[in-house]
């Protein structure tokens, strides 16, 4: 795959989200939605798009743009929390 295509695929992943599987049963308490019980091996979808709602960093918030500058994304963390994917 050439670099341009690779960057486009990566941009699509950043715009969409991540499918994960729960490794240990737990519950999540959300002040808006109440308690959600998650069982081991349950699938969850983490939407990256919902965390990027700053109109200054993300013009056209509801438009999928896989060519958005990578440094616009906020979920890589900082210091020892920094994501290996960065």
List keywords for this structure.
single chain; 86 residues; alpha+beta; two-stranded antiparallel sheet; two-stranded antiparallel ribbon; 1 helix; flat
Brief rundown of the structure:
By secondary structure, this protein is of the alpha+beta class.
Topology overview:
Elements: H1 3-16, E1 17-21, E2 26-30, E3 34-38, E4 43-47
Antiparallel strand pairs: 1-4, 2-3
Write a structural description.
This protein has 86 residues and is α+β, with helices and mostly antiparallel strands. It has one helix at residues 3-16, and strands at 17-21, 26-30, 34-38, 43-47. It has one domain. It has one helix and four strands. It is flat.
